[in-house]
Structure formats: C-alpha cells, structure tokens
Specification:
heterodimer; A: 107 residues; mainly beta; Immunoglobulin-like; five-stranded mixed β-sheet; three-stranded antiparallel β-sheet; 8 strands; 52% strand; elongated; B: 154 residues; alpha+beta; 3 helices
Chain lengths: 107, 154
C-alpha cells in the first residue's frame, strides 16, 4: 500500500526568496518499546530518513528516530534558485519507501 | 465493558513482572545514554550555549506529539552556515529525536517537527556550524501525559 504523503511547497516564488517547505508522511512510527495486549513486544517500524533534492541537488536530509511522533511532519526552508522540481524521498524499516515531488516556478 | 477473556489476558500480562520492572538506577542509565549520544555527534569539541533557539511549549499536555522548532542564528552563506542540527531528550529510552543535515542552500537554518517526549525533563538542540563549532540550547519541559507510559518505561 502506498503511503499517504503531503508536501506543501509554494507554487511560485521570487528568485532568491527563502521558502518554507512542509512535508508529512503517513506512518505509525512504531517505537519498538510497546507491548501488545498479549504481552509480546511490537517490533520497531519507523521511517528512518527523508532526503529532499532540488533539481537533482540534495538540499536537505533528515535522520529520524523512534522519538518522532506518528505521521512524521518535518518542515524546513530553502532558497528558491530556479524553476524546477523538488523531490522528496522517505525510507524506513521493513523496506518502507515513499516519494513525492512538487513543481516550483521561480520568477 | 471488559470481557472475561480480555480480563484474563490483561491479568496474565500484569502477572509477568520481570519484563515490566525497571532497573533501580534508571536515571543514571538515561543520563549515560544521553551523554553518549551527544558525544557521538560532538566528539571532544566544546559545546557553547547561544545562537540556537529551541522553541517548544513549556507545558506539554500530550507527550506523544510535541511540536518543536529549532532556529539557528547564521547568515547561511557558503563560508558561514549551519551544517547540521540535532535534537535530544533527557528522559526517553533512546535520547535521539532527529538529526538534519543542511547547507547554504537552506537560506535559513530552521527545522520544525513533532516529537514524542517520555517525561518531564530537558530537551536539547545542538547545531554544528561550518567552522566546526557546536552551539546548543536546553529547554526544560513539563509533561503531564507522557509518551510510552503504558509500560512504565520512564
């Protein structure tokens, strides 16, 4: 099942402007410390990293740990340098991977 | 309404005390884990206070989702920028929360996310500058409903 992903990037910006990017990925972020009702430990299942590239160049990378809330929301800033696409890639435990992309027009 | 079956399952789980019991020196264990996690990032370099601003509510109602943001004072040029930002908590079973790598392309040294915080204690934000220096901000928070409470892991 594809993960639910929300990415918020302004559709257009002035050249050199600092824009804020917000990302959210649907994931339970199971810590590996909780027990099921029957007593056994629920194994860890988290998103481990988010990488953002702007026209192919990496601008932001985050390493996530179990202490992030479920459905990890990460927002950060970048400079709008050129029109193009921003690509977002999440990867995690049990082969989890999700991606999204957003177009931006720089005037 | 709890069924007889559900009650028996719960009672059996509660009767297995060895698993749920915490070692007596838990505070020391947590502190050592936090120091180790910070040392892993910092190494032998000194950590100075200032330049970093960690913003999170001083009173947390629900430790399962705590909004927090980190802003670092920096011109964010190729010569002088923030290389990475790390967030740690004092009382979680694992102290690391998030580590981000940025560069001059960020424009503004800023990251915001939502964390799980296990108990009343300190939250620490650490930033590494492009010249290799480390700066930190420590904020005390009070948590009323903690994350990971069900197993008494605090």
């Amino acid at each position: 099942m594809a993960a639910r992903v929300v990415v918020n990037v302004p559709p257009s910006a002035k050249r050199g402007e600092v824009i804020e990017i917000r990302t959210l990925v649907g994931h339970p972020m199971e810590t590996g410390f909780r027990h099921a009702q029957t007593g056994e430990l629920i194994p860890r299942d988290i998103v481990r990293s988010l990488v953002c590239t702007y026209n192919g160049e990496e601008i932001f990378r985050a390493d996530l740990h179990p202490a992030l809330a479920a459905n990890p929301l990460i927002s950060f800033a970048t400079v709008a340098v050129d029109s193009g696409t921003l690509e977002f890639k999440w990867s995690g435990d049990n082969g989890f991977s999700a991606s999204a992309s957003a177009a931006i027009k720089v005037v | 309404m709890i069924t007889r079956r559900a009650f028996l399952v719960l009672a059996c789980a509660a009767a297995a005390p060895a698993r749920a019991q915490l070692p007596p020196n838990i505070a020391q264990i947590r502190k050592r884990a936090l120091d180790a996690a910070i040392d892993e990032v910092v190494g032998a370099a000194p950590v100075r206070t200032g330049r970093v601003k960690l913003d999170l509510p001083p009173l947390v109602d629900n430790g399962n989702t705590v909004p927090l943001s980190v802003t670092v004072e920096s011109p964010m040029t190729a010569a002088d920028h923030v290389r990475s930002i790390h967030v740690f908590t004092e009382k979680n079973p694992q102290p690391k929360v998030i580590s981000v790598t940025l560069g001059p392309r960020a424009g503004r040294a800023y990251v915001a996310t939502r964390a799980r915080i296990a108990d009343t204690g300190q939250v620490i934000a650490l930033a590494q500058m492009s010249d290799g220096s480390f700066w930190a901000d420590r904020v005390d928070v009070v948590v009323t409903l903690s994350a990971c409470l069900e197993d008494g892991l605090i």
